[in-house]
Amino acid sequence: MSRATRRKHVQLEVLHDDFSAPTENQRIVKVLNSRGNNLHEVEAPDKSTFLVSMPTKYRKNVWVKRGDFVLIEPIEEGDKVKGEMVRILTHEHIKYFKKDNVWPKEFDVKKEEKSDGDDVFVNTNRPVVDSDETSDSSSDDGSHKSDSDS
């Protein structure tokens, strides 16, 4: 299977994965940050933090960022890495788990419910400028320049 075909299948699996509830050994955790080498620091609902690894099929195909939720399975070997990602949860997964009462109450934040319909990325690096303010300031700047010139 070519690299592009494999990437397509992995991305379709992530987006259109089944909405089955987690089994008893699986946990929902929140990604805190990336530690490199496909290791991510996560926070469990009981506020404990540990490392989880990303399986080979997701590497270079799917990206996980800070604040995302993933479903993990614990692994016995290793002291620092305590789990492996099974599924990356999308907004649809989260909605489904909340309806099924499977979602941990510790991860329930009113801010997330409020921005439920907002999937549009807002660039925080650029200042927000209203068109009314720019037209007023440009006319003010022009009048001041002409007064000082005369």
Automatic annotation (TrEMBL):
Positions of the S1-like domain: 31-90
SMART domains named among the record's database cross-references: eIF1a
Bias-annotated ranges (Acidic residues): 130-139
Protein name (database record): Probable RNA-binding protein EIF1AD
GO CC, alphabetical: nucleus
Superkingdom, taxonomy of origin: Eukaryota
GO molecular function list: RNA binding; translation initiation factor activity
Start-end of Basic and acidic residues biased regions: 141-150
Key words, A-Z: Initiation factor, Protein biosynthesis, RNA-binding
Family indicated by similarity: Belongs to the EIF1AD family.
Keyword check for RNA-binding: yes
Family annotation (Pfam families): eIF-1a
Signal sequence, start to end: none
UniProt-annotated stretches for the region Disordered: 112-150
